[in-house]
Amino acid sequence: MRGGILGRLAGAVADARGILFPWVPVFLGAGIGFWFALPVEPGLATYLVAGGLVLLMAGLWRFGPEAAQPLWVAVACLTLGGIVAGVRAHLVAAPVLEFRYYGPIEGRIVALDRSQSDALRLTLDNVQLSEVAPRRIPARVRIALQVAPRFAPAPGQWVQITAHLAPPGDPVEPGGFDFRRVAWFQRLGAIGYSRHPLLMLAPPGRGEQGLNRLRAALSAGIQARIRGDPGAFAAGVMTGDRSGFSRAAIEDLRASSLAHLLAISGMHMAFLIGFVFALIRGGLALVPHIALRLNTKKVAAALSLPVAIFYLLLSGANVATERACIMICVMLGAVLLDRQALSLRSVAISATILLCLRPETLLTPGFQMSFAATTALVAGFGALHSALTGGLVPRWALPVLTLVLSSALAGIATAPFAAAHFNRIADYGLLANVLTVPVMGMVVMPAGAIAALLAPFGLADLPLMVMGWGARWILYVSHMVAGLDGAVTPVPAPGPLALPLIALGGIGMAVGRRWFRLPGVLAIALGLGVWTQAERPALLISPDGLLVGLYGPQGRALSAARGAGFAAQNWLENDGDLVSQPIAAKREGFTGPASERRFYLGEWSGVHLRGKGAEEKLPAACAANNLVITAAQIATPPEGCIVIDLGQLRRSGGIALSPDGDRLRLQPARDTTRIWHGKHAQTMAARWLDRPVRLLAKGQ
Asked: TM segments (predicted)?
C-alpha cells in the first residue's frame, strides 16, 4: 500500500511538470514566514548552514534522480526564504531611539499622511536631535502635528519643530500587531507628536525630492479643482496622497468594502495601463502606414511599460502598487514575447520578485489581499472560460456577469485576510463593488489619464470635472452602504495557525490539480475551525500600565475612559468588538474611583492604581488584594501580593493574564528578542510562563 501511495504521488508530480512553478513563491513565503516566527535572531552560523543546504539542494537537483527534483526545489526555496528575510533585515538596519526625547528636531520632509486622530503627520529624514550623538539618531522620524502649520508642508522642505519622540511601540498584547517590526523595515526609528508651531528652515533644493514634490503638486492641483473628499479621493487614486481625506469618508469606504478603490493596487494599474495600451494601439491603427508595417500590439506594450513604472514611482511605491506594477510588466513582457499574458505563472513571477526584494511584505494585508484576489480571479476565470465563451451565456449579459463574478471571487478570496487584519467583514461589499467598480474603470481612471495628458496644455479642467463626478458617486455609494443596518460584522482575531491554513488551502485549490483540491478544502475548513476556537485573554495590561482590560459577559471592560487609546482600540477590535473606549469603560467589571479601580479575576482580587500617590497607596492595596497593577515604577514591592509595575512592563511590553485555578498564567507581548527590538530588549516569558505565579494568601 505504501508503495502504491508513493507511486501515485510520484506519478502526480510527474504529471504536474510544467505547472509547478506557482509553488515557488509559496515555499519561498513559507521560509520567510518561518524566519519571522523565530523567537531569537539567527546568527551567522545559521545563515552559513542554510546557504550550504541551498547548495546541496542545487547539487541534488542537478545530479540526483529526476523524479525528486521538485522536492529539492521546494527545500531550496524554503531555505532561501529565511536567508532573504535575514539579509533584508540587516540591510535596512538603522538606529532606533532608545529613550524618550523632548526638544528641537530638524530634518527634511519626505512624506506626509494623517494619523488615526486625523492629525497631519510628517516623516523626516536627515534628522538632527539636540545633544544626541549622531550614531544614536534615527534615520527617519514621524511626528503628528497637533497645531496646524502656518504654511503648507511639502516634500523636500527643511523644517524645525519642538516635539516629543519615543521608540516605536511593541505589541499591546501577545501576538498582536508589532509596529516595531514594521518601523524597522521602514527605517523609522522614532515616532512622536508636537504641540508647537512648525518652522521652515529652507525650501526644497533644486532637484531634491523631485517625485515627492511632483506628487504633492499634482495632488494640490486636483484638489484645487475638485473640492472636498471627492477631490481627495481623486488625488489619492492618481498620486497616492491621501492626506486630504477626512476620517469619516475613510471609515465609510472601509465599512462598505471600498477602501481598495483608494489604495492604489492592481485594479488601478490595470485600468490605467489598459486605457493607455488601448489608446496607443487604437491611435496607431488609425494610421494605415504604421498599422500595416508594425506590430501595434507590441508597440503599445513597449510604450505602456514606462507609464506603469512612472505610475508606480509617482504613487509612492506601496506594496500593492509594487505587486501590480511587477505583474503588469510581466504581462506586457509576455505580449512582447508572444506568450500568454494573464496566467498563474505571471502571478507567481510577480510574487517571487516582490518576496525577494521586500520579504517583509509577506506579513502585510496589502500583499496578502492583493495576491489572494489576483490568484482567485485568474484561477476562477480560467476554470469558467469555456462556460463564458462557449455560448452558454448571452453576449449582452457577459459584461454584467463578469463584473459580478470578479467582485464575488475577489471578495471571497480577500474576506479571511480582511477579517483577520481589520476584524470586520463588510456584509454589503458585493453590492457596493458592483455599483462602483464600473465607474472606477470607465470614468475615474480614464478621466484621470486624459487629465494628465492634457494638463501641460491647460486643458485638464473638463476631464477632472468628469473624474469628480465619478468620485462623488463612489463616495455616495460608500456612505449609503455603510449606513445600512448590519453593514459591518465584527470578527475576533484568529489564532496564529488559522490564516496560514486558510491561505495554504486556497492556494491548493487555485494552483493544484485534482488531488490537491480536496486537501485544500480540508485545510480551509481546519483553519476556520481553529479560528472559531481562538480564546481571548481574560485580562490585558497596556505597555504603559495606564489601562487594564477585563473580559466579561458584556465584552471587555476597560479601567479608564481615556488614556492608552491605541491599546484600547486594538484590544476591542481583536475581541471583535467595535465599541469605543468610553463605552467599554462603562461596562461591569471594575469598581471604585478612577485612581483605584478594583476587579476580580477568577479567584484573584486585583486593583489598578493610577495617578499620583500610587506608591503611597501600594501597601494598603497589597494588603487587601492579591494582584496590584500600577503605572508607577516601584523600587521595593511589598510582600503579600503580586505587583506588576512600570519597570516590569518596560521589560515585557503589554501583558496578558489568565486564571488557572490558584495560579495566574502570564504571557508578555514582547516574547522574542529579534533585531528590531534593539540591543536592550528583554523578555520575561521564559521565567513566568514556565512557572506560573501561585496565588498568595493575604498578608503572606
From this structure: 20-38, 44-64, 71-91, 261-287, 299-320, 369-390, 396-418, 430-459, 497-516
Query: For residues 633 and 646, is the Cβ–Cβ distance under 8 A?
Result: yes
d(CA 358, CA 353): 8
Phi, psi of 621 (to 5 degrees): -65, -35
Average pLDDT along the chain: 84
Q: Which of 204, 224, 249 is the last residue of a domain?
A: 204
Whether residue 382 is predicted with pLDDT greater than 80 in this model: the reply is no
Cα–Cα nearest to 113, from 327, 262, 7: 262
| Highest-confidence segment of 75-89, 550-564, 614-628 | 75-89
* Domains of the chain: total: 5
Q: Average pLDDT of 403-418?
A: 85
Q: Is-contact 576 492, C-beta < 8 A?
A: yes
Report the share of the chain in percent with pLDDT over 90.
Answer: 32
Residue 250 to residue 576: CA distance in whole angstroms: 20
Model pLDDT for residues 267-318, shown as the tens digit of each residue: 677 778 888 888 888 888 888 888 778 888 888 889 888 888 888 877 776 6
Question: For residue 688, what pLDDT is reported?
Answer: 40
**From the CB of residue 518, how many other CB atoms can be counted at a distance below 10 Å?**
12
- Last residue of a domain, which of 490, 520, 555? 490
Mean pLDDT (whole number) for 163-179 = 90
Residue 417 φ/ψ, nearest 5 degrees: -70, -40
Q: What is the pTM of this model?
A: 0.85
CA angle 162–164–165, rounded 5-degree value: 120
- Lowest pLDDT segment from 149-153, 239-243, 282-286, 505-509: 239-243
Cβ burial, residue 31 (10 Å; 0-12/13-18/19+)? buried
350 lies in some domain: yes
| Coil/strand/helix, residue 300 | helix
Domain that holds residue 358: 211-490
Q: Is the pLDDT score of 680 beyond 60? A: no
- Distance between CA atoms of 311 and 434, rounded to whole angstroms? 26
CA distance 676 to 97: 11
Q: Are residues 128 and 250 in the same domain?
A: no
- Asked if 574 and 680 sit in the same domain, the reply is yes
The verdict on residue 568 lying in a domain is yes
Give yes or no: residues 653 and 671 share one domain: yes
Half-sphere exposure of 316 (CA within 13 A, CB side): 23
296's enclosing H/E stretch is helix 296-314
Residue 526 belongs to a domain:
yes
Nearest to 476 by CA among 439, 424, 427: 439
In a domain, 697, yes or no: no
* Angle between helix 461-482 and 228-239 (nearest 10): 110
**What pLDDT is stored for residue 250 in this prediction?**
86
Residue, of 231 and 241, whose pLDDT is higher: 231
